[in-house]
Amino acid sequence: MAIYPGAIRKLVPRTFRRATERNRINLHTAVSNSTSLYPMFSKGGACSHFYVREDGTVEQYIDTDRYSAADLDGNDATISIETWDGYTGRPGWEPPPWTAAQVEALVALCRWICVTHDIPVRLAQDSKIGASSRGISWHRLGVDGAFPRLPDPRAGRLQRGGGMHYSSAVGKVCPGDARIAQIPGIVAAIGAPAPSPTPPAPTPPPPEPQEDDMGFYVYADSAVAVYFFNQARGKVRLVPPAEWSAIRAMQTGAVPPLPVDERRVSQQWLDRIVAFGTY
Fold first, then answer.
1. CA distance linking residue 32 with residue 84, whole number of Å
2. Boundaries of each N-acetylmuramoyl-L-alanine amidase domain copy (predicted)?
3. What radius of gyration do the chain's Cα atoms show?
4. Residues 6+ apart with CB under 8 A from 207
5. What are the CA-CA distances from residue 52 to residues 108, 168, 218, 223, 243 (Å)?
6. CB of 14 closer than 8 Å to CB of 61
7. What is the pLDDT of residue 191?
């Protein structure tokens, strides 16, 4: 069984033949504003392997080791992906471009399919049986209609010299002009290395060891503001009263006064400080 790890699994209660080869991925537009095609596909008739919602959520309806029922003559060797398009039903409606979320989802899904089923990451050229129809394909490649001639990418089956019919309908624009224009970029992204996960933030280094914590003591007010001088760095820290009392009990000495608001030691002050002990 081949199930895409990134999909919501909604396998339809239907039986499909086991596939023996996988040659292409066919991209479709669903002509639907629905968040799921499961209710429709469960009843019979057409059914694709996947559906990609507007927000990029992927649903899987058929194991990709099985036929789908979305590409007529190509069903035996095709993995089919339907996509949301926000169909409105208004005259002249055209499928809009895939959303950024859909494009991202299609890239990830197609990359998985290509790796899982050994499908080449390249643009299919037509629907003819053989190498030219292998790769990333789209429904219109197997649809007859009055489409533009080659080299226009919107060309259909007839304009490309025939091939398998992916639909019995004539003039079906699936997946839409705007979406066909996006497919080369999707193929390029599929072939690029998958993005690496964001590395965790580095662990902050532990505080520097205080190798120089043997220094001089001075005070401005023996009860309020006593400072310990780190001689190497020329900086001070406030000595808590209890620590100062302990030092006074163990050591004797005399030190010059220092302003209470002083925080850095100039060479002048260092020269004036009288050493009287360490701890």
1. 6
2. 36-122
3. 36
4. none
5. 11, 24, 73, 73, 68
6. no
7. 87
